[in-house]
Write a structure and sequence with these properties.
alpha/beta; 2 domains; single chain; LDH C-terminal domain-like; 4-stranded antiparallel sheet; 6-stranded parallel sheet; globular
């Protein structure tokens, strides 16, 4: 089906080339036009050149177009994909430095907590302005958002934007891939589950591995499962408790692989430590990696846990992000230098399958973030779940289990208060949100911190590449 797709923030050397490749190599999207826009013209030129190279190799007649303005990019589109990072890595560095100076380190800082709210300050007005333009220039277009803080931005979009809005994140795939590795499975069809929650804080329950409940496998390996209520106050594991979880995890690995984990295998297994610890305390398995998930809990990113690193939670640095961006740019340049199309293959990312399924009504079962509507126990809750995606309708997401509702009501309300405070520039409400935020209790002078992020997030221009 020939459709028009705009990628806003296309100069990102990771997501821009990947999405272009996936669209142009998809036979169901044959004849489509991909319009690219980014305020970083140098990055945009390179990604556009890469797109032209893919276009010359792809067999389905889809085309790549570089827009000359934001207005042109948003006009006449069927799908508008947002993948932006307002302020870029330089502003992120200042934000992280300020947060650390005020007494808090964060593994990512793009979803929740003081740094996540700081990021929302500069992204929310830009995203809503883009949506307002898109409503006029492309009425009825699908707004597909991958920009963080994803849930907060989508929560604002669905209440202020008439376009259909879907958020996409690949985080649950990482967890399923890790479980496949741990249990030596060929594909995730051997894992059955229900997924429910909010982006970067979603959960797998009714979880079975190869037709056997995980709780049974876990108990056979010497683990235990408690039913502690899920809340931001969930404690970090005590040394003896953590050791018991680790030994049970090693036994799970041994039962599947026939040997003890060593070296890289042991490191990969430890990356699941916090997931299994939470499962042992609550009976629910986190559907995202610990570096995102941990920021929702006040006791995990603390000096006592070496800011989460004792729990297998790595800290994000601007240096690592910069090196990653440079490596992705070098890959794009290398592909252009070789001019070899034999390595062009579809990725396993969720973005283009959502476009394909929504537009072509293929009904594929995919991970999406959508508004749960008024049927939910939390009205307008942005629900992350897996279900069939169709243009005509989206399956109602599963309700949150009762044990999870209190925490997710709290997160939802925090997001809503921050949206209201940002759009009204209400500093008193902003301070109230920070006072209630679990991870912000490490910041002694929250008013001082707030003034700092308000100063950092003064108008920084238009969105640049993620």
């Amino acid at each position: 089906m020939s459709i028009a797709i705009a990628i806003i923030g296309a100069g990102g050397f990771r997501w821009g080339p990947l999405n272009i490749r996936d669209i142009l190599l998809d036979p169901l999207l044959a004849g489509s036009t991909v319009t690219l826009w980014d305020i970083d013209k140098t990055a945009l030129d390179l990604v556009y050149e890469y797109g032209c190279f893919v276009e010359s190799c792809a067999p389905y007649g889809s085309r790549v177009h570089r827009a000359s303005s934001e207005d042109e990019a948003l006009s006449g589109q069927d799908v508008i994909l947002l993948t932006i990072n307002v302020g870029g890595l330089e502003l992120m560095r200042k934000e992280m430095d300020w947060t650390q100076r005020c007494g808090l380190l964060q593994p990512v800082g793009d979803t929740i907590g003081p740094a996540g709210f700081s990021r929302a300050l500069r992204h929310l007005p830009v995203v809503l302005a883009l949506a307002e333009k898109a409503e006029r220039a492309s009425p009825g277009a699908l707004m597909l958002n991958t920009t963080n803080p994803l849930t907060l931005l989508n929560q604002a979009l669905v209440s202020r934007c008439e376009l259909p809005v879907i958020g996409v994140c690949h985080e649950p795939h990482h967890v399923l891939n890790s479980l496949m590795w741990l249990f030596s499975l060929d594909d995730d069809s051997e894992i059955s589950y229900t997924l429910s929650g909010q982006n970067h804080c979603s959960w797998l329950f009714d979880l079975s591995i190869d037709n056997r409940p995980l709780v049974s496998r876990w108990c056979e390996a010497g683990g235990t499962v408690d039913t502690v209520p899920v809340s931001p106050d969930l404690p970090a594991p005590a040394p003896q408790e953590g050791q018991a979880v680790w030994y049970a995890m090693r036994r799970l690995y041994h039962s599947s692989h026939g040997q003890e984990p060593e070296g890289r295998q042991e490191s990969d297994l430890y990356a699941l430590f916090l997931n299994f610890y939470v499962f042992s305390r609550t009976g629910y398995f986190p559907a995202c990696r610990p570096r995102h998930f941990a920021e929702f809990f006040r006791n995990w990113i603390t000096p006592e846990t070496q800011w989460g690193q004792l729990l297998g939670v790595p800290l994000t640095t601007v240096r690592s992000r910069t090196l990653y961006r440079q490596a992705q740019r070098d890959l794009v340049k290398g592909s252009l230098e070789k001019q070899d199309g034999s390595g062009l293959v579809l990725s396993e990312r969720e973005i283009v399958p959502v476009i394909r399924s929504y537009v072509c009504d293929t009904g594929e079962s995919l991970f999406v973030n959508i508004s749960s509507g008024l049927h939910s126990c939390i009205p307008q809750f942005i629900h992350e779940y897996r279900g069939p995606v169709n243009h005509s309708s989206l399956m109602a997401p599963p309700e949150l289990p009762h044990a999870l509702r209190s925490m997710h009501r709290f997160i939802h309300q925090q997001y809503q208060n921050w949206i209201d405070a940002t759009l009204k520039q209400d500093e008193n409400l902003m301070l109230q949100v920070l006072e209630r935020d679990p991870s912000a209790h490490h910041i002694k002078d929250k008013e001082h911190y707030l003034q700092g992020i308000l100063w950092l997030n003064q108008p920084v221009g238009r969105p640049c590449a993620a």
